[in-house]
Design goal:
The chain is of the alpha+beta class. 31% of the residues lie in helices and 20% in strands. The strands form four sheets. The chain has a four-stranded antiparallel beta sheet, covered by helices on one side. Strands 5-7-8 form a three-stranded antiparallel beta sheet. A hairpin with a 3-residue loop joins strand 7 and strand 8.
Length: 223
Amino acid sequence: MDNKAYKITQLGEYSYSLVSKGKYNSQLYSSIIKSHILTSAFYDPRKNSIFFTAGFIQTLPEYLKSRKNNRMTERECAKLIYNLTTQIQYLEENNYIVYGYNMNDILVINEQTFIIASSEYILPLEEETKSIVFYSPIIKPFFCNPELLELTNLPSSIHYKSGYYSLGVLVAFCLLNKNIIQTNVSTDKEIEIFLNPIRYSKVYWFIKRCLNKRYEQRVLLFI
């Protein structure tokens, strides 16, 4: 498994290595290992990669294709939310922010553990302004946010909680097989209609908190 963001190599029947190709790969490795998402994972600085054991590895698109109607259940999405928010919060605590995702950025280990495997959309947090700054041209991720889409000049910045919107879009896609950004859903009423199939579930409220129009009020809270 080798793409522009990372390389997965099978070393033995149950052993694998992950090499992230992005600038902030060491921060990504720490978020996987020190947040204990993969309890078997360890870092080898000589090879700048992490090693872990697994019986089966899939990308998120492969996993979705194995589900009924290419959609995850709410229970499966609850595990996705738990794993990714754990990783995201570890990065935040160490002043790094995930601002978007592509489909293949998420790996599924043994059909039950989800990890962010790409550091392509990670940037350092500017603590004083609570923002991340873009100094070079931006390739927009598949799961994006309105603030990022509106950027036209460089350098530019967005609030660090803009990335929460991107996560909400990702979770909604896993449940409904539709990308909110691509369908141009933007108003509160349109979002309500879009999320109507999962209305008032725990995952529904999590997504709603991520998609708050006021970015400073967005939270990663699943209750």
